Amino acid sequence: MSSEKITEDITTTTPAKDAPALVKKIGRTTYIVRVHFSKASKETMSDKIKRMLKNKIWQM
Length: 60
What we know:
Elements: E1 21-26, E2 29-34, H1 45-59
Antiparallel strand pairs: 1-2
């Protein structure tokens, strides 16, 4: 056996302190999901939901 160490390459960005988070515990694992939106986006959340619904309808 080699004595080579295995390291993980984790790239993260620091979320804003006021960014909402969803915390879900499944078994012994806790998942923390932070939500963020692009400030450069020109599409509102309402526009995005409408676009996604239209695309889903066209797939049927």
